[in-house]
Every structure is written in structure tokens, then in C-alpha cells.
Design brief:
Distance between the termini: 41 Å
Shape: globular
Largest sheet: 5 strands, parallel
Order of helices and strands: HEEEHEHHEHEEHEEHEHEHHEHHHHHH
Structural class: alpha/beta
Number of strands: 12
Helix content: 40-55%
Radius of gyration: 21 Å
Number of helices: 16
Strand order of the largest sheet: 6-8-10-11-12
């Protein structure tokens, strides 16, 4: 549905509608399951206990927001049988109307990975890690999923206990073999994290390391930016600008943080940062940003699983809409002339604009609830799943998801 008119209000509305029509953000299956901290797990009656329940929850989020048609899968948690589980996943896709998204291998949970997975000194263990990565590639190919997302927890806690340079070579070897196995339409996304669980050195600790590994692997490897995986004060949007500039930005894991990798809901601490990131992405051509995948990766320890996920997607839509309102032509002129205050005000005015009325108009036109959180509360869905899953969750085991 188009909006006609030459006024500023009409232009703003068209910008927002165009942006929202193209905005997609993937939800993680594990975000619907019981999670916790290293100190314990906090059980919720309505948390998903099976992969079918995760698909059901993901479908509900998409129905309320219109922005999340895919759900990220974690291989060991969601497909414990590996490729043999693919037909069951395909059945769930058909039943619930949401598709499988990124495939996430697990190279941190097994006891054999105590000293690393793809950077382990043991050639046998590195071989086991590679076998799991190749299985994940095959799962993605069978499900038609574009991305295999890699978070590598490898590292060490004490100086002198590992050869950092040898581990670089081992990672190159394993990831190179994985890259060679990717299908024509598949990618591997290399994530980075400065610390935790490794506290002296992490093998892929920043975007430079991730970028170099991706480049050495080949053209189907890109960098994945997790907004929680940075030191305090890091200018994440500058990293985003660089990765866009060199054509190596594959996607995001969105969450928020106060101190470290806190896995808080997107925009809950610093919505201005998310706005700045979206601005950088919208500043390049549609072709340049077409391959950038938006994904959520956060742990809803205290908030309700469904409420937190709907809140996150709705917040992402609003911040993306705000970023779409930046008058980039005017901003470029002000930047060129070094008119600092005017340029900053041009930029900030879009952030301060209340886009909720425009977003609500878009929702109505697209047959969506005007207020997704309110619609979720009124639907009775949370109460229903709490009744159905409560007894299973009360006796849940301690595995993460």
C-alpha cells in the first residue's frame, strides 16, 4: 500500500513503510527454552520443551510482528539426531508456517572440547569438530538454510599454556575444510568474542581475527557481529561500517549489554547504539546490504520468553524505522561542510522522533496487531502454553536449552 503526497509527513511515512516492508529479523529457538546463568537455571512454566513447541512459539511471534519468518536452529539442542531429524523439521515448517533459518553448530558443550574444538591440540578432537561442522553444513543444505553460524569458544586461561600461533593454523585448516563443503547458496558466518569462557586468550577474539579467518577460508565466509561481544565503549557501528566497506559483513546477533555479554533484550540498555548500527546499514545501497542477516541471540532469564521475544522484535522494527527517517542527503551536505551541531541534530532528530504511530499505521495496513505485546496478552497464548508445559518444566533437567 503506498502513501501519496509531497509533505514531510508523507515522505516520512513512506520511508518507514518501505523500511518495515523489507525488515526481517530471525528469532532463536533457544530463546524460547529455559535458560539461566552459570549459577543456575530459572524455570518458566511456559518455556518450550521440544522443538515443536519452539516452532509454535516462533510462529506466534511472526504472526504478531510480521517480521520473523525464520527460526535459528541449534544442532545439538534441536536436531540431536543430525540429518536424520531433517524430515521432522520440515514437517514443523509446514505445520507452523515458519522456516528454518541459520544453523548453529555446538562446539562448546562436549567434554572433549575442554581444551578447544577446532583449535584443540589433539588432531582427533579437531577431526571430531570438523565432522560436526560438516554435518551442520549438510543439515543446512537439506533444509535450504543459507547460513551456518559459528561461535567458537576456544581459548586458554593461562599464559604459556597454549601456542597461540599453532592454534591459528589449526583453525584455518578446519574452517577451510568446512568452507570447501558449503553448497552453492550457503555461507559460513564467523563470530568473535573477546572473552568467556576463555579468559587469557580467545582464539577468535575480535572482528579483525574473524575477518582474516573469513578471507582465508574463501568468498562464502563472512563476519558475524554479536552486539554483546565487545569491550566496554567499543564503537560497534564503526566496525559495521568497515565490514560493509570491504564487503565482509554477514550478519548480526542482536542483544544488549550493560557490562559484558549480558544477553539482555535488544535496546533495553542502549537503543541509540542499535539506531546507529541500523543507520550505517541503511546508508549503503540496497544491493550492498542485501546479504546482511539480522538475528536475535539473547537469554530471557527473568522476562517471560514470549513477551521478551515479541518486545524485542517490535523494538527492532521501531529502531529500524527511526534509522530510515535520517535525511541522508541533508546529513551528507552538513558533514561535508563540517557543520557539526547541525549535522548532529539532523542525525539525532530521527532518533528522537516517535515512530510508533507510523509503525501502527503500517501494522494495520499489513493486517497485523497495532500493539503486538498487548495482542499477545489478550490472546491467552502464554497462559495456554503455561498450562500445557508447566509440569514438564517443573521437572526439567539442567541442560542449557
Amino acid at each position: 500500500m503506498g502513501i501519496n503526497g509531497a509533505g514531510t509527513a508523507e515522505r516520512d511515512a513512506q520511508r518507514v513503510w518501505d523500511a518495515l516492508d523489507g525488515f526481517r529479523i530471525e528469532v532463536p529457538s533457544w530463546g524460547f527454552a529455559n535458560t539461566g546463568t552459570r549459577f543456575g537455571k530459572f524455570v518458566q512454566a511456559g518455556a518450550a520443551t521440544t522443538i515443536e513447541e519452539k516452532f509454535s512459539d516462533a510462529a506466534q511471534v511472526n504472526a504478531l510482528t510480521g517480521a520473523s519468518p525464520t527460526v535459528a536452529l541449534h544442532v545439538l539442542w534441536d536436531l540431536p539426531g543430525g540429518k536424520a531429524d531433517v524430515p521432522a523439521i520440515q514437517g514443523l515448517e509446514k505445520k507452523y508456517g515458519v522456516k528454518s533459518g541459520s544453523i548453529n553448530p555446538n562446539l562448546f558443550q562436549n567434554a572433549e572440547y575442554k581444551y578447544g574444538s577446532i583449535a584443540n591440540p589433539s588432531a582427533e578432537i579437531r577431526g571430531n569438530a570438523l565432522a560436526h561442522l560438516l554435518d551442520s553444513v549438510e543439515i543446512g543444505r537439506a533444509l535450504g538454510s543459507k547460513d551456518v553460524s559459528l561461535w567458537i569458544a576456544d581459548g586458554s586461561n593461562y599464559p604459556g599454556t597454549q601456542s597461540i600461533r599453532k592454534r591459528i593454523g589449526w583453525m584455518e585448516e578446519v574452517l577451510g575444510a568446512m568452507h570447501a563443503a558449503l553448497g552453492e547458496d550457503q555461507r559460513m558466518l564467523v563470530e568473535y568474542k573477546p572473552f568467556e569462557p576463555a579468559f587469557y586468550h580467545t582464539d577468535i577474539a575480535d572482528w579483525g581475527m574473524a575477518l582474516e579467518l573469513a578471507r582465508r577460508c574463501g568468498p562464502k565466509a563472512k563476519v558475524l557481529v554479536d552486539t554483546g561481544h565487545h569491550y566496554q565503549g567499543t564503537n560497534i557501528e564503526q566496525i559495521v561500517a568497515w565490514l560493509l566497506h570491504v564487503g565482509e559483513l554477514g550478519g548480526f546477533h542482536f542483544n544488549d549489554r550493560k557490562y559484558a555479554d549480558d544477553d539482555l533484550t535488544l535496546g533495553s540498555i542502549d537503543p541509540y547504539q542499535v539506531f546507529r548500527i541500523f543507520h550505517e546499514i541503511l546508508s549503503v545501497s540496497a544491493e550492498e546490504r542485501s546479504g546482511v542477516a539480522f538475528m536475535i541471540d539473547q537469554s530471557h532469564n527473568l522476562k517471560g520468553k514470549m513477551e521478551a521475544m515479541v518486545q524485542t522484535v517490535a523494538t527492532a522494527q521501531e529502531l529500524y524505522a527511526k534509522a530510515a527517517l535520517v535525511d541522508r542527503a541533508k546529513l551528507a551536505e552538513l558533514q561535508q561542510d563540517c557543520r557539526l551541531v547541525e549535522a548532529e541534530e539532523c542525525f539525532r532528530s530521527a532518533f528522537w522522533q516517535d515512530v510508533r504511530p507510523l509503525v501502527q499505521q503500517w501494522r494495520v495496513a499489513r493486517g497485523l496487531p497495532t500493539e503486538p505485546l498487548k495482542a499477545l496478552a489478550e490472546s491467552g497464548y502464554v497462559e495456554k502454553i503455561s498450562r500445557e508445559r508447566g509440569s514438564r518444566n517443573a521437572s526439567s533437567v539442567s541442560s542449557y536449552a
